[in-house]
Amino acid sequence: MTTLSQRLSALFLSLFVVGCSSTPDIPPFSASGYLADRGVVRIWRKNSDHQSVHIRTFYTPFSGGEDEVTDYVWLEEALISVQRQVKGDQPDDVTLRFDQEGGLNFMQRQLAGRREAVSPDAVELYKFDARRMRQLSDALLSGRVFLRQGRWQGYNRLESCEGQQVKTAFDADTLQMLAQQQREASAPLMVSWLEAPEGVQLLRISQRDTCAQQPKEEEM
Q1: Is 49's pLDDT higher than 90?
Q2: What CATH topology corresponds to 146-219?
Q3: Which of these, 27, 44, 101, 143, has the minimum number of CB atoms within 10 Å of its CB?
Q4: pTM (2 decimals)?
């Protein structure tokens, strides 16, 4: 697991130093993710004939707050929309749409009970986040770092969200932690993890049904 963490760090460092010079050979529909400073980021990506790219991210804070779900869509390399949703007691939804020259033609921020405009500085930040997420997705998939999710069944076995029986390569410490949390949980544990040529890395443990949350290719 340490090896994979080091590999991810190296990927990100390489990305920010030299950037992505080319689009990696990636499958039409894929998932990846990484551990951020304050939470977990899971990424689903759909490529349509290399003309349209749709990336959906789920950011789950370590503090236990609501998921932040963001959809980015590009058409012929031009960012055409960003939609970010935070649900719960304090909902906060932002929608931005752009033309293919990068001009903003629609913006809206919907808070609890009111709407607001999005400031020019905030629009630029959303555009920056979109570029960064596209580059991170390229780097992760180029490194063959893929996300998997499933229901923990004990004894190093899971049922994936696709209904397959999976035996993981988690180390002894991770298995012990999962067994302990399952004993204390009131429902089956849902596990998200990364698989790469260098090994596996546990991303997230939850009692929420993350399989129900996982998007399908036809939904993107």
Answers
A1: no
A2: OB fold (Dihydrolipoamide Acetyltransferase, E2P) (2.40.50)
A3: 101
A4: 0.87
